[in-house]
Every structure is written in structure tokens, then in C-alpha cells.
Amino acid sequence: MAHVEIEPNILYFGTPVVLVSTIGDTRDLAPISSAFWLGWRAIIGIGARSQTARNLRRTRECVLNLPSVREVDAVDRLARTTGTAAVPESKLRRGYRYEADKFGVAGLTAVPSSTVAPPRVAECPVAMETVVEAIHPVAADGGGR
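^ that's the sequence the OP posted. Answer follows.
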């Protein structure tokens, strides 16, 4: 078998996929696979220059929506989208496109949250309304090519 180098759009190595909903100029919904929990705290890893990161720094609120296997297609439809209107060149080269209505693109339903401004995803069996306690830059340069 030959060794093949790849540059996938998104890496999901069997870790839980989380759909992070935030509020910016529009509602944003981003799939991430870098999430784990320590007690009552969720630790998430996202690109420092992403729309999600900008929204979190500004509002300090989000909803961590945990999709089930029934939402796999919806997660895939979000994989190459960005909530940033001026799509960075590095993302354009990888096939990303701007989407103002990521809930619509994914075919998911936004419903009001109880304690935070960003909406929950109605189809997700678990939705955790959260407030950002701390932000720790790790790969401020984006870490990608």
C-alpha cells in the first residue's frame, strides 16, 4: 500500500462532534471535534481566527449541541462552510465558502435557549448552554497551512 499525504477539510477521529452555536452578525453553527469535559467544564479547541472564536470573545456565550448519528449528514453539510464573510485565502484553497445561514444549509432547526442568546439545535439530543469562563490561546497562528 502506498503512503498518501492528504489535507482533509476537517478531522474527526472518533471524538465527539460538537455543533457550537454562537451569535455574531448572524447566527453561527460550527462543527468541532476537539472537545472534552473535566467535571462541569467543557474544554473546546477552535481556530483562533474563526468566526466562532470571534463570537465567543465578544459575547462569551455559546451552546454545545451534541448530534446523534441521525445528524451525520447535517454535520457533513457544515464541514466546508464558514461564518466569516471574507473567507480567508487558506480556507478558499480548501473549498470553504461563506454561509450566512448555517442552520439552513445544514437543515437543522434553531430554537431559543433558556439562559444564553445563541440558539440550540432542536434535532440534537443534548444541548448545553454555556458561558465562557476563560480563553487560552494555544495555536494563535491558526496552526494550518
